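Please check this chain.
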Amino acid sequence: MTTFCQADVLAIFAAKTVRTFCYGFLGIVLPVYLSDLGLSAAGVGVAVTLTLAGSAALTWLVRRPAERYGARAALLALGALSAVAAVIFLSSRDPRLVVLAAILGNVAVGTGETGPFLTLEQVRIARAVPASRRTVALSVYNFLGYAAAALGAVTVGALAAYRPLFVIFLAGAAVQCAAYACLPREASEERRRPEGTRLPSAPLIRRLAALGALDSFAGGFVLQSLVVYFFHERYALGLEALGYVFFATQILTAASLLLAARAAARFGLLATMVVSHLVSNVVLILIAFAPTASVAIALLCVRQLLSQMDVPTRQAYLMALVADHEREAAATTTNVARTVAQAVTPALTGWVMQAVALAAPFVAGGALKIAYDLLLYWTFKDVKLHPDA
């Protein structure tokens, strides 16, 4: 790895760590905070949907500037929006402005991150490291994210207050911008796709995006913020207990990512994605029938130990599926499809929790995710990866 690549990867790793540390506590605080401000379960679901819709819009809007001016400028602009979001959190208790801040800050409301930061950073990492080390680099990238999010979750239990956490978010946005400022500059033409050039891999990208949309639609039923709400309402767990629960689940998720690269090297990227995800979704359905908080938490821990092993392998698979000049388009298309699909579900989930059963989303989400796993394997089992990947 060259010095240029080291600077690239280390700066991105630092930004990822700081950002997801903040997401770790914001994903827990946001639904409880909105509930304290007077929103019902349906209102919290709509707020989460709006947050995801905003993330999808930012992901789509950032692609062209990133191709034209490079990822550095686009990431700096996104970091500045996070700082604006933190200021709004600190200065207003109006639920509408709180939701606007969550949108501007691209606050992660699930256990994993989606959105414009992820889109740009995974492409930058793919270009900075050789193909043989790509899955390892993306595993470390995601490991740092989940480990930092775990520390963020436990911070909720330690502080158990909103304002200090919002101050930390503001400081984190500043550190994130400083990390992006250290990225080497890119020539504007380096990342631009020649005018009129078609994407040879467009059909594959569309298929993967469509399947990803199904997975994310299903995942919208069990976003972390909604799972937090479930545990808060069904088992009467408070902020402190919730912080420790999701600290444990994030630690287990982070640990599993260290196994992803090894599993992919032995079984292949596609097989690792499908099998680990499939088993985790069976466990997800079982959470709906847990008789006590202890059993539900234990099942959630098992689920998180398996469910995110597909994340670095999926990212590496996507980067290996297309040519280099297609990577921004591939990452943007798949992430937008995932985020938009996920944005549809939370508002529906809030209604389902009220009208059907509090645990019903776990069954719906798990069943749809199992369908995604089977379709993913059937669709891509015979597809060859790009020869230049």
Remarks:
- The chain has one domain: 3-184+199-380.
- Residues 188-192 have pLDDT under 50 and may be disordered.
